[in-house]
């Protein structure tokens, strides 16, 4: 299977702290890779290095075989790479539909492609398709700030899919979300992976969510990869059990 994302020996230090300490892995086309590990082990920093929010201290990132290390987030967007952040990125005063349209404009990138790309009418249609897909129809005209936290997280995830990305990195999409919204989100992510062949990496603390959604799981501890394998392999790995339960 082709690797959509290849990460080789990524490192990131902040002053004296090494947040990511030589991480290598790849993500295959169409898979959902889970990323778990204790708070502060470097998961978000790794995402930021892959997506151009941070310049890594060392290492290389390839998307579809092309070196993209150090490219800006907007340039990665144009290559079909998208993300969500650990903290919500929705605009509370705009409606659900407007948030999605704005995300679509962002994914289209430069003014030139905006001028010559699909019209805003096209974006509204794309937003409405996404609203339907994420079952947000009844909330389409509500302001994002009036939604429940779980609904806002669902909207935030939907926004990452507006450009029809090949690869989406989701940083705790289910963080702080109640159980029924969690099931909704898992079901929507599984469906979008199946129907649109989108490839994901998902950081999430809820084990049940990760184990039931992901084809493989990577476990990080203290900036390094502790284990990588199927959910069953990872669950039975003594080093993982030790890291989570061994205190
Ligand atoms: N911008 C930053 N400046 C300094 N230290 C940071 C910065 N971002 C993250 N860190 C540190 O890097 C380590 C990893 O953090 P992070 O990647 O957010 O972990 P995780 O997402 O796994 O909880 C932590 O020790 C954190 O304090
Ligand atoms: Mg984090």
Q: Pick out the low-confidence regions.
A: none
Q: Please name the fourth-level CATH homologous superfamily.
A: P-loop containing nucleotide triphosphate hydrolases
- The CATH topology turns out to be Rossmann fold
Order of helices and strands: EEEHEEHEHHHHEHEHEEHH
The helix-and-strand class reads: alpha/beta
Q: Kindly state the mean pLDDT as a whole number?
A: 90
**Extended strand count:** 10
In CATH's first tier, which class applies?
Alpha Beta
**Share in β-strands:** 25-35%
Helix content: 25-40%
Strand order of the largest sheet: 6-7-8-3-9-10
Count of DSSP helices?
10
The set of bound ligands, ions and cofactors reads:
adenosine-5'-diphosphate, magnesium ion
Total domain modules: 1
Work out the radius of gyration: 18 Å
- Apparent shape: globular
Termini separation: 39 Å
Structure description:
- The strands form 2 sheets. This protein has a 6-stranded mixed beta sheet with strand order 6-7-8-3-9-10, sandwiched between helices. Strands 2-1-4-5 form a 4-stranded antiparallel beta sheet, with helices on one face.
- It is built from 10 helices and 10 strands.
- Strand 4 and strand 5 form a beta hairpin.
- The mean pLDDT is 90.
- The protein has a single domain, classed as Rossmann fold (3-Layer(aba) Sandwich), CATH 3.40.50.
- It is α/β, with parallel strands linked by helices and 247 residues long.
- The structure holds adenosine-5'-diphosphate and magnesium ion (MG).
């Amino acid at each position: 299977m082709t690797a959509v994302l290849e990460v080789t020996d990524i490192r990131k230090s902040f002053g004296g702290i090494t947040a990511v300490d030589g991480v290598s892995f790849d993500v295959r086309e169409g898979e959902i890779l889970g990323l778990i590990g204790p708070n502060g082990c470097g998961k978000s920093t790794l995402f930021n290095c892959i997506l151009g929010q941070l310049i890594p201290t060392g290492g290389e990132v390839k998307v579809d075989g092309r070196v993209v290390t150090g490219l800006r987030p907007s340039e990665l967007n144009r290559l079909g790479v998208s993300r969500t952040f650990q903290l919500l990125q929705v605009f509370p005063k705009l409606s659900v539909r407007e948030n999605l349209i704005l995300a679509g404009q962002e994914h289209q990138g430069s003014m030139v492609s905006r001028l010559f790309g699909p019209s805003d009418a096209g974006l509204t249609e794309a937003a409405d398709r996404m609203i339907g897909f994420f079952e947000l129809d009844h909330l389409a005209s509500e302001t994002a700030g009036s939604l429940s936290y779980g609904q806002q997280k669902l909207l935030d995830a939907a926004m990452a899919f507006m450009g029809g990305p090949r690869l989406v990195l989701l940083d705790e999409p289910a963080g702080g979300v109640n159980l029924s919204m969690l099931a909704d989100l898992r079901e929507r992510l599984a469906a979008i992976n199946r129907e649109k062949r989108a490839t994901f990496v998902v950081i999430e603390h809820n084990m049940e969510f990760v184990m039931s959604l992901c084809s493989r799981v990577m476990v990080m501890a203290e900036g390094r990869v502790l284990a990588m394998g199927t959910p069953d392999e990872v669950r039975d790995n003594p080093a993982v059990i030790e890291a989570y339960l061994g205190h």
